[in-house]
Design brief:
The chain is an alpha/beta fold and 217 residues long. It has a single domain (4-214), classed as Rossmann fold. The protein contains nine helices and five strands, in the order βαβαααβαβααβαα. The protein has a five-stranded parallel sheet with strand order 2-3-1-4-5. The chain starts with a strand and ends with a helix. Residues 200-204 have low confidence and may be disordered.
């Protein structure tokens, strides 16, 4: 099978991957796929759903192979339903691959044009952002500072090898900037790649216009 052309959004919880992915997904010929949404939409009555429930019910981590199988099944359903047309659309992946094993498993499925690392140097600012979000969503357990720090430590240990894996096509962006500045950096990089021969030569005006509309004058 042909690999899906994609851009990756890599970042810790609270770094703004979802926000940036949703904005990019509004641009024609970009299709945003958030790993978290894939899990939340999982039907536990299906064979794949029952396998996930079996692991999570025992408090075990879901194997990477099963995670990638779920992602692939979801994408294929989007292709079948014509929501994603891989011959003319490009994926924006958010939250996957999240570790080195997943990146290796996805090598035969995706062609990564570029990866954007949304980096937050100030961990306390990130902890505050996550705590506020948890309170807003009424997830009181997730608002605990100790729990948040543990999540960030797990993310860092898992993701460092992923960043190394994509080091030749990686751009690091300061995630503490205003979202409009972050999206401007991302779209500017995509446009630069487009001029170098990427798929977007026919859509540069659309991408540029969307980026300009997001940046304060």
């Amino acid at each position: 099978m042909n690999r899906y052309i994609c851009y990756l959004l890599i970042g810790s919880p609270g770094a703004g991957k979802g926000t940036q992915g949703k904005i990019l997904g509004t641009i024609p010929r970009f299709f945003h796929c958030a790993c978290g949404d894939v899990f939340r939409a999982l039907d536990l009555r299906t064979p794949l759903g029952r396998q996930f429930a079996e692991f999570s019910g025992k408090g075990l981590l879901v194997p990477d192979e099963l995670t990638i199988e779920l992602w692939q099944t979801t994408i294929e359903a989007q292709v079948y339903g014509k929501a994603f047309q891989p011959d003319i659309d490009t994926l924006i992946l958010d939250g996957i691959p999240r570790n080195l094993r997943q990146a290796q498993l996805m090598e035969g499925l995706i062609e990564v044009r570029h990866a954007f690392h949304l980096f937050c140097r100030d961990s306390e600012k990130l902890i505050q952002r996550l705590g506020n979000r948890a309170l807003h969503d009424n997830r009181l357990d997730d608002a605990n500072g100790t729990v948040i720090r543990r999540r960030l430590e797990t993310y860092e240990s898992e993701t460092a090898p992923v960043l190394e894996f994509y080091r030749d096509k990686l751009t690091t962006i300061d995630a503490t900037q205003a979202p409009v500045k972050v999206i401007n950096e991302i779209t500017s990089a995509i446009l630069s790649l487009g001029r170098a021969g990427a798929r977007y030569n026919g859509h540069e005006r659309t991408v540029q216009k969307r980026a300009e509309n997001l940046v304060p004058s």
